[in-house]
């Protein structure tokens, strides 16, 4: 028996925004139906970064698959021309344990996060959403936009230009206009970006609340906070919004809610539902045009394993795919 | 940059019993010197097996390396001609997170466990040990013997024949006599095997105490218990022996001590030291010819990462070694 070896190029061919959305939606549904096991991710801490080991096992909703994503986060890597976030996924057959595939998880991590935002928007944003405000303009903003466009007819995006960094906002605007038939504007006034937007997407490494004002009816995808002490959204917004998390253990430890929880500005009562429960139909998504909704994404191993399985299934019988006999 | 791909054959070339012993001893010393991070392994449970994700980071004693071993345990695999235990290790550079190598961990898991037994025997068994009794005669018994012979001049082994399974004991005897200049005898009386032995090695999947009697001065390597409710040694022996564990969190959860701890037949006070503390010189090993010593091995991620690093260093500049550009 051989183990498939799949590179980023292989993964990119399969995991289009549309396929990633469908796969991640199924993963959240299975998780909401209690058809997934996902112990909290465990960390190793290095002087300049960390490693996260993320195992998951999905059964039901067409899944019967397990595996582990090992992802490293080293914010200073850009200086040496390496991605800050790199990942490898090992996919195992739950029946025998056999390692079916070893796969690059670098692009996969990016697109599955975009897909989680899109699925949250599908269940939580107004159906007629047309304007999206972006706080954060890096690689994750692109994934968020690409996946979001599959579920909502976004016609205009507003991009916040972080003080002192014109290049990032401009590069994102240029890329977005080249890739999609949308209008894209840049503003250095963050309120201009977050007010009068149907959907606000935050994907910065911020440790202070950046977003202070949104209009009634806005949906917020709070993507950036993924470690203790990170936050992007004013606790005042969290207090009045319908807050939906991906997973309580992870979100309370390192998601958007982690700082205001520690500061006792909000409590577990402020959390309305998990996305899995909403996708599985156990809890309601948006219930009015006026409510403000917020999705706190930390990134779940079930998303990774579901997406890896999709790539494996699509390529396992294709010609030209590498494999190795490990033992 | 490329990631090395190393198969079982590659690993076998480097990790001889002698190299495995040296490497595992250094890993225990680093761990004893608090130069290693190792969160408790996390489990996924399947209908017919489990997956364990084992991350570790070693710094000091010549190490600066991190990684994760993903190991599956499916006891019924022999029926379909697959190993019960299969593993893959991802090795990461702590400085950047880069995945330096992906390596088969199946043979590695076996030999690093043998090496832990050997290092325990080096510090805990009498130097003049010549006779070893084996309870359990599978692949792990072979690893234990191969590694033990590097540290003690064993001249005679006694093998217990489990009622109803003649083939396993015979195959082990035949292999041992062909591989080494030693005498090897089989007995179906377990006391004959464990009494008048200098070292007793247990490597069975037992859930009841098998070993009830040992002679004064015996060292026991209790290897088999690696899951809750497994045990091989009578609690009476544990109560009077100097008990040395590899790691408290793992041993109390799933090692030899887990059942008698739960039954309150022993308490944490009965645990004398961890092997890392002894190897690092912080605690004493054997202190008399009469005392009974026991090493409770559960298998640590630091052993895996240290051994994987050794293989990586030995092969990274060798011709003919496979590699892959993941992203």
Q: What does this protein structure show overall?
A:
- Two copies of one chain form a homodimer.
- Chain A is an alpha/beta fold.
- Chain A has two domains: 3-109 and 302-324, ornithine cyclodeaminase, domain 1 (2-Layer Sandwich); 126-298, NAD(P)-binding Rossmann-like Domain (Rossmann fold).
- The first copy, chain A, is built from eleven helices and 16 strands.
- Chain A has helices at residues 8-14, 17-32, 106-124, 139-148, 166-179, 190-194, 235-240, 248-254, 258-262, 275-279, 301-315, and strands at residues 3-6, 36-37, 42-46, 49-60, 63-73, 85-92, 99-104, 131-135, 156-160, 183-187, 199-202, 219-222, 242-245, 271-274, 293-296, 322-324.
- In chain A, the strands form two sheets. In chain A, strands 1, 2, 3, 4, 5, 6, 7 and 16 form an eight-stranded mixed beta sheet that branches. In chain A, strands 10-9-8-11-12-15-13-14 form an eight-stranded parallel beta sheet.
- In chain A, a hairpin with a 6-residue loop joins strand 6 and strand 7 (99-104).
- In chain A, helix 2 crosses helix 3 (106-124) and helix 3 packs across helix 11.
- The relative contact order of chain A is 0.19.
- At the A-B interface, strand 3, strand 4, strand 5, strand 6 and strand 7 of A face strand 3, strand 4, strand 5, strand 6 and strand 7 of B.
Topology:
2 copies of one chain form a homodimer.
Chain A: E1 3-6, H1 8-14, H2 17-32, E2 36-37, E3 42-46, E4 49-60, E5 63-73, E6 85-92, E7 99-104, H3 106-124, E8 131-135, H4 139-148, E9 156-160, H5 166-179, E10 183-187, H6 190-194, E11 199-202, E12 219-222, H7 235-240, E13 242-245, H8 248-254, H9 258-262, E14 271-274, H10 275-279, E15 293-296, H11 301-315, E16 322-324
Parallel strand pairs in A: 1-7, 8-9, 8-11, 9-10, 11-12, 12-15, 13-14, 13-15
Antiparallel strand pairs in A: 1-16, 2-4, 3-4, 4-5, 5-6, 6-7
Helix pairs in contact in A: 2-3, 2-11, 3-4, 3-11
């Amino acid at each position: 028996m051989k183990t498939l070896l799949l590179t980023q190029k292989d993964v990119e061919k399969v995991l289009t925004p549309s396929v990633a959305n469908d796969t991640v939606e199924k993963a959240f549904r299975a998780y909401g139906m209690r058809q997934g096991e996902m112990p909290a991710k465990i960390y190793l801490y290095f002087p300049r970064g960390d490693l996260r080991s993320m195992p998951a096992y999905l059964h039901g909703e067409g899944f019967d698959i397990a595996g582990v994503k090992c992802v490293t986060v080293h914010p200073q890597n850009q200086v040496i021309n390496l991605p800050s976030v790199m990942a490898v996924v090992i996919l195992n057959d739950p029946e025998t344990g056999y390692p079916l595939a070893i796969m690059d998880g670098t692009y996969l991590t990016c697109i599955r996060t975009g897909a989680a935002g899109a699925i949250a928007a599908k269940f939580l944003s107004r159906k007629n959403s047309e304007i999206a405000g972006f706080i954060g303009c890096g690689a994750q903003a692109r994934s968020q936009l690409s996946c979001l466009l599959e579920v909502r007819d976004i016609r205009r995006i507003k991009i916040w230009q972080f003080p002192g960094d014109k290049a990032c906002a401009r590069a994102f605007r240029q890329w977005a206009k080249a890739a999609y038939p949308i209008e894209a504007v840049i503003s250095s006034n963050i309120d201009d970006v977050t007010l009068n937007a149907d959907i606000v997407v935050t994907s910065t490494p911020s440790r202070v609340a950046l977003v202070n004002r949104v209009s009634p009816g806005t949906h917020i995808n709070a993507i950036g906070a993924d470690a203790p002490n990170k936050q992007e959204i004013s606790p005042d917004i969290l207090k009045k919004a319908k807050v939906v998390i991906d997973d309580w253990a992870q979100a309370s430890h390192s998601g958007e809610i982690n700082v205001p929880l520690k500061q006792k500005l909000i409590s577990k009562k402020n959390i309305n539902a998990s996305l899995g429960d909403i996708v599985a139909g156990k809890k309601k998504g948006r219930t009015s045009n006026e409510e403000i909704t917020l999705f706190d994404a930390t990134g779940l191993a079930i998303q990774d394993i579901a997406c890896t399985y999709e790539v494996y299934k699509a390529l396992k019988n294709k010609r030209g795919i590498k494999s190795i006999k490990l033992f």
